[in-house]
Amino acid sequence: MNIVLGVGGGIAAYKSALLLRLFTEAGHAVTVIPTDASTKFVGVATWEALSGRPVTNNVFDSVDQVNHVRIGHEADLIVVAPATADLLAKAAGGHANDLLTTTLLMARGPVLFAPAMHTEMWQHASTVANVALLRSRGVHVLDPAVGRLTGPDTGPGRLPEPEAIFAAAMALVDGSCAVTHDAGSPAPAATPASAVPAASGPLAGKRVLITAGGTREPLDPVRYLGNKSSGKQGVALAEAALAAGAAVTLIHAPMEVPAPAGATIQRIETALELRAATLAAAATADVVIMAAAVADFRPSTISTGKIKKRDDTADPVIALVRNPDILVEVVAHRAARNQVQLIVGFAAETGDDRADARSYAREKLVRKGCDLLVVNEVGPGESGSERVFGQDNNQVEILALDGAGPVQAAGSKREVADAVVLLLAQRLAAR
Predict the structure, then answer these.
(1) Which of 79, 94, 201, 353 is spaced 20 to 30 A from 175 at the CA atom?
(2) What CA–CA distance (Å, rounded) separates 89 from 110?
(3) Residue after which a domain boundary falls, among 155, 177, 195
(4) 181 plus 317 within the same structural domain
(5) What is the pLDDT of the chain when averaged over all its residues?
(6) Alpha carbons 212 and 238: distance in angstroms, whole number
(7) pLDDT surpasses 70 at 349
(8) Are 131 and 141 within 8 A, CB to CB?
């Protein structure tokens, strides 16, 4: 497949080198067209070395080949990453003042923009209007990730990870793309055919939001507080929901497994980043599945330098503060919007001398107020290995706030995911 990779002039341009490597390793021929500004961040020599092709953004290079027409005609797919506010404005306005903008005008195949900019730029009325216009024309514009931006700021505007852009691009050309947009992003005036989820399946036409992976809370530039979550169950849920015909958004912390193609992917690191992304995306979801392992606490301060271990200093004392309860907030926001929505929580529980794991899970279900709670009893198994974290199999009990059930499911994590999706489909149909 012939792919054009347009590179905008932002600090995130270095990530596009990783995206280029993903495309080439998958066997695709890639023509890189960097803007002049982007070459201040990543030089032409890098793009030529990684792509194995000459690189230019000048319409007067190789005039005999009529590049400003030929490249767009021959492209099976055009991906622009990072797409700056300036590039989005030029594309919306139909500008044609360099090789990248002329190629975009000549495109016959799908076009995918992966925006990256500061939060204020992404939320500015001009950018909102430009993105809405592009989407109305059938152009695919990903929502930016929520996370650390240039400088100390955090918020929506971070370039999605290269793996997420690659998955979205491949889904476009194989027809399995399910594009969703969070509440803070401009909605498309018309939905492209390739953005429509499968017409069949028990979740056809439904939007499903899933969180997965284990959040990380930084202590200093090299250390963090984390957990043992592999993300396998969350990914299995996303795959099962896609197979059931849903449009799936997967917001994930670090995972040991790749995100599935066909879902809209948003990568985060911390609990606060997960909170911002989830509350925004949940506003338009029919189902919310909170499968991520979220840190209950985070350090009250983050050291700007690596905490040193020296004989002449005392052992550090790390003060912790509570993270917000994202599941409780999602339930509260649903009530405030009077929204018809199914919300599923996950609980990794252990028993103690006061009560067993199921009792603690039932208390949590009532306290959280979600519709369903999928319960794992965690800890060492009979062989001494972990029961759940990092394993390929799982055994859960699904508790319902309305008193129905409980439902047991066991087997591979995909089999457990299929059981959860089937139960969701039954409850949606009953409503």
Answers:
(1) 94
(2) 18
(3) 195
(4) no
(5) 85
(6) 9
(7) yes
(8) yes
